[in-house]
Design a protein that fits this description.
The protein is an all-alpha fold. The chain has a domain at 32-207. Helices cover 69% and strands 1% of the residues. It is built from 19 helices and two strands. The protein has helices at 12-17, 33-64, 68-72, 77-93, 95-104, 113-135, 151-173, 179-202, 220-236, 238-241, 249-268, 279-286, 291-299, 309-330, 334-338, 342-368, 378-404, 414-449, 459-464; strands at residues 243-244, 302-303. A two-stranded antiparallel sheet has the order 1-2. Helix 2 (33-64) packs antiparallel against helix 18 (414-449), helix 11 (249-268) runs antiparallel to helix 13 and helix 17 (378-404) runs antiparallel to helix 18 (414-449). It is globular, with a radius of gyration of 23 Å. The relative contact order is 0.12. It binds protoporphyrin IX containing FE. Protoporphyrin IX containing FE binds next to helix 2, helix 4, helix 16 and helix 18.
Length: 465
């Protein structure tokens, strides 16, 4: 292994967490109290991933054999689809970030650990109730903002509870932290407080129509903005799960300078009914290609746990696929053919199942420690990555055919059935991989707390181990 100089005192995670970074920590998994809250968060996240993946397999079966919907009615395709998507977003994609926040605000240990666990349970309860309400046919009609009726109140309240835990952690830990960090955390808290209210408001069907009437879809500017937000998240995530290498500061500086330049470009671009046929739109979106080499360079400025290697490679590989393909999708001629086809499903999967999932696993490994072996299973890694890769490829092919022949996915034919059959196999491989991770997490928690006490964490027991 290469020699790395660690920046003294200023190491981001150590400063953020005010404790020795886990990279070199020999602490055993079962002996650390904070680990328990974070592992529990991982259990909730992977639990929802698994449930949602099996629902995805069910959806893939329904698309191959639509008549099966008659047996399931009224719980047929249209009712399961929002459950699949919302559980992937608010369960799998969100909970690892919740765990990251709990760690950054140091709410995962001491007296607050109990409240953090309660926040996780409330979050999952909201998802469970939400699923029942969507299956019951209640929905605002807005994609990813389907919360309606009593769950539209319950979920924001669960988020508010989590916010209360983070705020309490901030107040009780603030004395031990430097001024800059304290301000950063305070600003973070203020922004986070907006989330439950914004979510409640955005779920109203009256706020804005589900389809943008000005453009009928995204503009180059809106795409650029959302990718830059993802870049910002990518910038921040290493600061909780790795250490900065002082000698490699150069790439950090270059990345921030490029980020600022892209921000200025965003401000200068037109909005609303701007067409993707305008060269300024697709050329400016093409500026994102600079992040394909720059993001890996940025990540080499940090020292990572050994057990994250495979997933780090996966994150960067998916990133290198996502940015150029996403850009190509926006080009005149290509977007016209692929819009609202399976090609877009392929793009969603590249972003969510390929890139975001690899990133979230990387985050979970970083949070749960260097001894973590939950995501070490080689077969599960290969099943997930290969399953996702093939799924994306066949959806792009199906989308391309569908663009020229809109009846292709609706009228059964051999090519479509073969493609949808392969999708089903890919989905089963992905669902099996997530079930393996869930099983390993279950074993890990059982080992940590003792099978007789279930998952209710006992500090005294853990200390005694
Ligand atoms: C991390 C894993 C996954 C994520 C984040 C995810 C996310 C999504 C999203 C966002 C959509 C909507 C796509 C769109 O309309 O643009 C979707 C649709 C769908 N997903 Fe998943 N999914 C995942 C795993 C799976 C798995 C394992 C299967 C199993 C085959 C599956 C089957 C489906 C099906 C059948 C659709 C509907 C496609 C259509 O309407 O034509 N998904 N998924």
């Amino acid at each position: 292994m290469e020699t790395m100089t660690l920046q003294s005192g200023m190491e981001a995670p150590a400063a953020l967490l005010n404790e020795p970074a886990r990279v070199s920590s020999p602490a055993g998994a079962a002996a650390s109290e904070p680990l328990s809250v974070l592992t529990l968060a991982a259990l909730h996240a992977v639990g929802w991933l698994t449930v949602s993946n099996f629902i995805g397999v069910g959806l893939a079966i329904l698309l191959l054999w639509p008549r099966a919907g008659a047996w399931l009615a009224p719980w047929s395709y249209g009712r399961w689809m929002p459950v699949h998507m919302n559980l992937q977003l608010y369960g799998w994609t969100s909970l690892p970030l919740v765990a990251w926040l709990l760690k950054i605000y140091r709410a995962d240990g001491g007296g607050l650990a109990r409240w953090s666990r309660t926040a996780l349970v409330l979050w999952s309860l909201a998802l469970g109730l939400g699923s029942l309400s969507w299956l019951d046919g209640h929905s605002s009609g807005k994609l990813f903002l389907d919360w309606s009726g009593y769950v539209r109140v319950f979920f924001p309240l669960a988020i508010l509870f989590l916010w209360g835990v983070l705020a309490a952690a901030f107040l009780s830990n603030r004395r031990g932290e430097g001024n800059a960090l304290r301000w950063l955390k305070l600003i973070g808290l203020v922004l986070l407080l907006l989330v439950p209210f914004a979510l409640y408001a955005a779920c109203s069907p009256d706020i804005y129509p589900p389809v943008n009437p000005d453009s009928g879809g995204p503009t180059g500017a809106s795409q650029l903005e959302s990718v830059l937000i993802i870049v910002l998240i990518l910038f921040l995530l290493p600061y909780g799960v790795s250490r900065r290498i002082a000698a490699r500061r150069r790439w950090l500086v270059v990345s921030w300078v490029v980020f600022a330049a892209e921000g200025l470009l965003c401000l200068g671009l037109g909005r609303a009914d701007v067409s993707n046929n305008r060269p300024t739109q697709f050329i400016s979106l093409g500026s994102l290609l600079v992040w394909v080499p720059l993001m890996p360079a940025y990540y080499t400025s940090f020292q990572w746990q050994e057990n994250t290697r495979r997933w780090r490679m996966a994150v960067l590989a998916w990133w290198a696929v996502l940015i150029p393909t996403g850009w190509c999708l926006f080009l005149p001629g290509v977007l016209d053919r692929l819009k609202f086809t399976d090609g877009l499903v392929g793009h969603s999967l590249t972003a969510m199942a390929g890139f975001a999932t690899s990133l979230l696993v990387l985050l979970l490994i970083g949070l749960t420690g260097p001894e973590d072996n939950v995501f070490a299973s080689r077969w599960a890694f290969v099943a997930w990555q290969a399953g996702t890769g093939v799924y994306v490829l066949i959806m792009l092919i199906a989308g391309w055919i569908e663009g020229a022949d809109p009846a292709f996915t609706m009228v059964p034919n051999t090519t479509r059935n073969v493609i949808y059959g392969i999708r089903l196999c890919c989905g089963m491989a992905m669902a099996a991989a997530s079930a393996e991770w869930l099983w390993r997490l279950h074993l890990r928690l059982r080992a940590a707390v003792g099978s007789s006490t279930g998952y209710a964490f006992s500090t005294a027991r853990a200390r005694a181990q």
